[in-house]
């Protein structure tokens, strides 16, 4: 399995690259699910020398894919497996707060993870564009309801019901880097009850 | 400022000899109104009427951005330059009326930064003086490393040291004091932004060292205004206005167009901002691309030229202006 190819869309929609090791004093890698493959492939290409200054934070993907054993076996200086991003986020915040310039940051896996790591990094003042990213695995989306502001994780269907306020939301490609989520907009505001059939767009 | 943009009519209210090479000038509006506010790192283009020759040089503003009663710039005298700085040094006196462009910032602070690390060489100190005043007012975290030839030629070094204390670090070449850049860059917290203003060699050294040590390009900022280089005279055909003009040895292509009544856009007049970028219709010869705006591929293809600093040698140059 290789990186996910997305259809070209509006400018707001994030695009991702392929993880490539860059020179740095230290390396922080965050991955979920199939993102583990992007990490092992990058290290296979770059050589294992970087592992002595590498910290990996890993969690299973939203589809349950768990490759923590393979990542742990790489032998990075620090490896931490977490059950979820929520469980890992305080660790991530502490690591970036203590890190120095010259630390390269890599994220591989789902869009929700990539977005939230970029958000945590940007909050420290590092431009989000400087994070190395690669999309692998599930394409489920993290969506903010623009009406109640509640965030629904792992959205598969479009339109879907907001898990907070219950409105039927159309999932846009319009993406907020500040909030780290796609935008969901009420689809039957003008004709209440006239909601198109829900289709599974994200797997 | 580009063609037709409003300008600021000012009067010179103060001229101070800072050291052997540097003079400071203060400008206030002739109508007594407030100056536009600006952000630290901004520059203005100063218009000079040098005995019939129109000179327009960009200078960084060094007064506090919150001070709208006037603007201050510092000018280093360049005895072998084209004459703008010499004119400022020898002819500009208090009471004289001059014209400034509105401030433009091509070297702003990135206010998302956790910390601002500033590296200045010589007269490159001026934008940082305004930026530090701005950061002090905002409670921003910063550190200045200022390298200069000697205590006698280090403009504002002691004033800044006295004001900002241990946030200011001074290095004197004559005393063999040099910035330990690798060590400095190694210890910076994630989210630090690096700013460098000074001679070309210093900017290249700081940028290369930062890249080598894993600093992302977007966290490194620099500013260098180029003076238009002198060279041999050359002829240019202006396709849109249907004129053929000659650029004199000590004149830039932009200045030659202006002298011939052709309106061309500009902003920094120093090869940095990109505003004057012009399509090349035909190039039968060699363009000396002196800017740092066009990419290496664009320069090699000779399809664009920056008239503020670049020159030509050859049989024919036709541009879209």
Q: Can you describe what's shown?
A:
The complex is a heterodimer of chains A (203) and B (321). With 203 residues, chain A is an alpha/beta fold. Chain A has 2 domains: 26-135, Nucleotide-binding domain of ferredoxin-NADP reductase (FNR) module (Rossmann fold), CATH 3.40.50; 141-189, no CATH class. Chain A is elongated and about 60 Å long. Helix content of chain A is 22%, strand content 29%. The model of chain A has no long low-confidence stretch (mean pLDDT 95). In chain A, the strands form 3 sheets. Chain A has a 5-stranded parallel sheet. Chain A has a 5-stranded mixed sheet with strand order 7-6-11-10-9. In chain A, helix 3 runs parallel beside helix 4. Chain A is built from 4 helices and 12 strands. Chain B is α/β, with parallel strands linked by helices and 321 residues long. Chain B has 3 domains: 7-101, Elongation Factor Tu (Ef-tu), domain 3 (Beta Barrel), CATH 2.40.30.10; 115-223, Nucleotide-binding domain of ferredoxin-NADP reductase (FNR) module (Rossmann fold, 3-Layer(aba) Sandwich); 234-319, Beta-grasp domain (Ubiquitin-like (UB roll), Roll). In chain B, helix 5 (200-212) links the parallel strand 10 and strand 11. Chain B contains 7 helices and 16 strands. Classes of the chains: A alpha/beta (203), B alpha/beta (321). Chain A binds chain B through residues 22-25, 96-97, 99-104, 121-122, 124-127, 129-130, and chain B through 110, 112-115, 185-194, 212-219.
CATH architecture of the largest domain in chain A: 3-Layer(aba) Sandwich
CATH class group of the largest domain in chain A: Alpha Beta
SSE order of chain B, as H and E? EEEEEHEEHEHEHEHEEEHEHEE
Number of domains of chain A: 2
Oligomeric composition of the shown chains: heterodimer
- Note poorly predicted spans of chain B: none
